[in-house]
Amino acid sequence: MSDRRGGISFDLSGVPLRIRGLSRPFEGRLAGEWSFFRAEPLAEPFLDLDVTSEEAPAPAGRFDPKAMRSDLSHDRAFFGMPEGSAAVDSNGRATVRLSTAVEGERTWFAFMNLLRAALAWRLPSRGGALLHAAGIVLEGRAFVLAGAQDSGKSTFAALAESSGARVLSDDLVLLDSEGPTVDALGAPFRSTHPGTSSPGRWPVAALLFPVHGTSARLTALPRIVARARIAANLPFVADALGTDPRIAALIDRLVEAVPVRELTFARDPSFVEPLRTFAG
User: Fold this and answer.
1) pLDDT, tens digit, for every residue of 153-173?
2) Calpha distance 62→228 (Å, rounded)
3) Which residue ranges make up each domain of the chain?
4) 129-276 architecture in CATH?
């Protein structure tokens, strides 16, 4: 990593962030991959990242995003990986340190993982969340299906698109409730779904949790079950549920403001019409 102190700003559909200190190749790559979200510099971004280099031993083994460790509270967060670390404060100032012992794609993936972790910890301050989920838009409303790896998120997204839905993501969905509604945001996070993400905000009609079956149906979930399933799909911050009151408040906000349903569906788009007509 070079020590060049440049800067680049983005607007993630109403969530502004600034990143300074990236090497020229990384800054150019980020500008290209997030081109639809480029923004003019803001004096007070919601997340302000400063990237630096640090001397550290070369990590052993392959890159493993699950190797991230964390130390979280309501006013600060630390995320560490063999390739680097991120420290964030309650004002949204973050320092990302990347090891000089690694380079190339491994450093890039580590940086992106640390950036997402910092944003995930910061978002509950405005009632927002980074949710492990697929998101689609039907008739101007978003439906967000949360679940672990191999739970059917990509299948859900692809089948919905085949029936006319817009796909926001099939892996990570950015939620925001700084306004009167809980909205799903267009955001440039990783997705195996082809196509280009672009800015936008859509009110969330329902949070869904998948069940595989032969006929499509929606089933209401008890509040306690809904809270537990939302908590299980909050990457990077779920471990802070008992120590950071913002996380519990976020989950309560989602359960109170958005219908939470179990969605049973097969490998066909028959579930799309019930979602179109869903009244909450």
Assistant:
1) 999 999 999 999 999 999 999
2) 32
3) 8-123, 129-276
4) Alpha-Beta Complex (3.90)
